[in-house]
Design brief:
- The structure holds 2 protein chains of 2 kinds.
- By secondary structure, chain A is an alpha/beta fold.
- The longest helix of chain A is centred in the N-terminal third of the chain and has 15 residues, at 9-23.
- Chain A has a 7-stranded mixed sheet with strand order 3-2-4-5-7-6-12, sandwiched between helices.
- In chain A, strand 2 (27-31), helix 2 (47-51) and strand 3 (55-57) form a beta-alpha-beta unit.
- Chain A is built from 12 helices and 14 strands.
- Chain A has helices spanning 9-23, 47-51, 62-74, 93-106, 136-140, 153-165, 176-179, 215-227, 246-256, 271-281, 304-308, 314-326, and strands spanning 3-8, 27-31, 55-57, 78-83, 116-121, 146-148, 170-175, 183-188, 199-202, 207-211, 233-237, 240-242, 259-266, 291-295.
- Chain A folds into 2 domains: 3-188, Rossmann fold, CATH 3.40.50; 199-326, 3-Layer(aba) Sandwich (Rossmann fold).
- Chain B is α/β, with parallel strands linked by helices.
- In chain B, 44% of the residues lie in helices and 10% in strands.
- Chain B has helices at 4-29, 44-53, 68-73, 78-85, 119-133, 151-162, 194-198, 210-225, 256-263, 265-275, 280-303; strands at residues 60-62, 139-144, 167-173, 176-177, 180-181, 202-206, 231-236.
- In chain B, the strands form 2 sheets. Chain B has a 5-stranded parallel sheet with strand order 1-2-3-7-6, sandwiched between helices. Chain B has a two-stranded antiparallel ribbon with strand order 4-5.
- Classes of the chains: A alpha/beta, B alpha/beta.
- Chain B: Its EC number is 1.2.4.1.
- Chain B: It comes from Amycolatopsis viridis.
- Chain B: One of its GO terms (molecular function) is pyruvate dehydrogenase (acetyl-transferring) activity.
Chain lengths: 327, 318
């Protein structure tokens, strides 16, 4: 039965994991420090006690974690593997790109790897360059994988369940700055939705701002400020970067005639470029050139002041939107 | 002493693999098969012996490339395998796998891997599933000596050991890490000794004797099914061909190939069977039967339609 609870983002993830483990006896939850310690961010607290051996700690071995997930998934388990920081997934990218993504295709559907990888990414004050990257474009580039970035408490719950219920390998990218940043009403126990689908976070007529992940909170802040200046930005949360809901983007851009894509990941080679290309290919008439906002072409430094100069700020986003509308 | 009938079955299975590889060599020369092909000639005893010890209705084999032999030893039909190598619609993976990335799960073969060592953690995962599903499944990860230097293999061995997963790690030590002697790549060339570092049994076995392999794997299977955890077996063998078709093998010292040919498992088992009183005519008949089977399978595969490009986007997602 659906119920509504006041939860943090971390607690919303925890609630989704609890439901998955309860409703899917084939579900397994494992990763570094997820069981007895309850996760380094406290996200998996209490699950070991409740579900016993189906929740377990692993060695610091990303290849074993992800490869183990692939093998277990091929044999009827529904593994949910945690990679503590998205940066660490690169240690074992082979298991995602060469292995998980190929299983169904090469076997013509006689094998499959319905695994879920939970990870978190992005910069937070004091994080070093190896703990700050935004890697969704890496994963989204790979046919066979599905990738989402829940940015609201409700999506932290809903998207994770969609991922776990999905019969393909799915990477769920959370963001640690959201985990403990306040509580919200979250509806639990509703129907599990199929993967895909963007969400309008703020309707508007002047410009479409497509975003995803934690940066959307800065985008919404910028849009709120600009409303005072008479600029009504429509903020669209992609949520899934693969499959990307292009229909929703095109429909919005058809109405507004303007497009700004804002993400925390590097602009070069990012998903934003892909969106702009798709809009161009669709032949939509734009009232001004489309804009990408992302991290400039540099590494992410440790000093908070330096990092803040790299990660798009509310001011940078607001300025880009204003320029776009006033062009 | 094993029954003569069992040894004859080993011989037939090994001969089928060898004939298959000889026909692949011919089809590569005619250009019917294209691309890089890695043959397993000389290593057949490992596949035949190991598969004889497994229950392939529930156990799962995860080979590394050079996998034609594994796939055939698991029982996959030569026709479907030829068709796969020839890019035919009837190929065992519809032309999506090819020589180095075959899978035949209906025969217990869950995916050759052309990333050296990458199958080891996946096999550990299959074994992990077995600890929850009550199937009693044992997973066998097979890879070459070179793969022993891959991080994924170390991670898989430690993970399997610490969780007592029912996995058999089987090293096909043919002395060459692709084109480089394994002895030049490791300080300790008795690779099975690494098992002790992970807290599991390790042993070096005669990889040119299918019966020795069968016995060692059978013992490892018993152990794994009992919940005692993984085992590392190092099966000593030799390639009697290059790393790939076209490899001139200049890196092999003189005499090395001759020694490999003298020790290769098919001639060795044939001599053993003659010594046990089996008639030469019976061996000749076995050989002719397998040759007909392979020639027929190859001809049928060549006559099959090529894989249909209009299906190329299918099966990416559920």
């Amino acid at each position: 039965m659906p119920e509504t609870k006041n939860l943090s983002y971390a607690e919303s993830v925890n609630a989704a994991l609890r439901r998955a483990l309860a409703e899917r006896p084939e579900a397994l939850l494992f990763g570094e420090d997820v069981a007895a310690p309850g996760g380094v961010f406290g996200v998996t607290k209490g699950l070991r006690r409740e579900f016993g051996d189906r929740v377990f700690d692993t060695p610091i071995s990303e290849s074993a974690i992800l490869g183990g997930a692939v093998g277990a998934a091929m044999f009827g388990r529904r593994p949910i593997a945690e990679i503590m920081w998205a940066d660490f997934s690169l240690v074992a990218l082979d298991q995602l790109v060469n292995q998980a993504a190929n299983v169904r295709y090469v076997s013509r559907g006689s094998l499959s790897a319905p695994l879920t990888v939970r990870t978190q990414q992005g910069n937070a004050p004091g994080a070093c360059a190896q703990h700050s990257q935004s890697l969704e474009a890496f994963f989204a580039h790979v046919p066979g994988l599905r990738v989402c970035l829940p940015a609201t408490h409700q999506d932290a719950y809903d998207l994770l369940l969609s991922a776990i219920w999905c019969n393909d390998p799915v990477i769920v990218i959370e963001n640690r700055t959201l985990y403990h940043a306040g509580k919200q009403q979250v509806q639990l126990g509703g129907d599990v939705q199929p993967v895909g689908g963007a969400a309008v976070r703020r309707p508007g007529r002047d410009v479409t701002v497509l975003t995803w992940g934690a940066l959307q909170h800065r985008v919404l802040e910028a849009a709120g400020r600009l409303a005072g200046d008479g600029i009504e930005a429509e903020v669209l949360d992609a949520r899934w970067v693969r499959p990307l809901d292009l229909e929703a983007v095109l429909a919005s851009v058809r109405r507004t005639g303007r497009l700004v894509v804002a993400h925390e990941a590097h602009t070069v080679g990012g998903v934003g470029g892909e969106v702009l290309a798709a809009v161009a290919e669709a032949g939509l008439p734009l009232r001004c050139p489309p804009v990408r906002i992302g991290a400039p072409d540099t590494r992410i430094p440790a000093a908070p002041g330096l990092a803040a100069a790299v990660i798009p700020s509310t001011e940078v986003i607001a300025e880009a939107i204003t320029k776009s509308v006033r062009a | 002493m094993p029954e003569t009938a069992a040894l004859l079955a080993h011989l037939e299975s090994m001969r089928r693999i060898r004939s298959f590889e000889e026909e692949v060599t011919r089809l590569r020369a005619t250009g019917d098969i294209v691309g890089s092909v890695h043959l397993c000639n000389g290593q057949e005893a490992i596949y035949v012996g190991a598969c004889a010890a497994l229950d392939l209705s529930r156990d799962a084999v995860f080979p590394t490339y050079r996998g034609h032999g594994w796939t055939l030893a698991c029982g996959a039909p030569p026709h479907a395998l030829f068709a796969e190598l020839l890019g035919r619609a009837t190929g065992i993976n519809g032309g999506r796998g090819g020589s180095a990335y075959l899978s035949a799960p209906e025969y217990g073969m869950y995916g050759e891997n052309s990333i050296v060592g990458a199958g080891a953690p996946i096999a550990a995962g299959a074994a992990l599933a077995a600890t929850f599903d009550g199937s009693g499944r044992v997973a066998l990860a097979a890879f070459g000596d070179g793969a022993m230097n891959q991080g994924a293999v170390h991670e898989a061995m430690n993970f399997a050991a610490v969780r007592a997963l029912p996995v058999i790690f089987l090293v096909e030590n043919n002395h060459y890490s692709e084109l480089t002697p394994i002895a030049d790549m490791v300080r300790v060339d008795r690779l099975f000794k690494r098992a002790s570092a992970y807290g599991m049994p390790g042993a070096r076995i005669d990889g040119n004797d299918p019966e020795a392999v069968r016995q060692a794997v059978a013992e490892a299977v018993r152990r794994a099914r009992s919940g005692a955890g993984p085992v590392l077996l190092e099966a000593m063998t030799q390639r009697i061909v290059g790393h790939y078709i076209g490899d001139a093998q200049h890196y092999r010292p003189s005499g090395d190939l001759d020694a490999a040919l003298a020790a290769e498992p098919i001639g060795r088992l044939a001599r053993e069977l003659l010594g046990l009183g089996v008639a030469q005519s019976e061996l000749d008949e076995l050989e002719a039967r397998v040759a007909r089977e392979i020639a027929d399978a190859s001809a049928r595969a060549l006559a099959d339609p090529v894989a249909d490009p209009t299906t190329v986007l299918e099966h990416l997602y559920a």
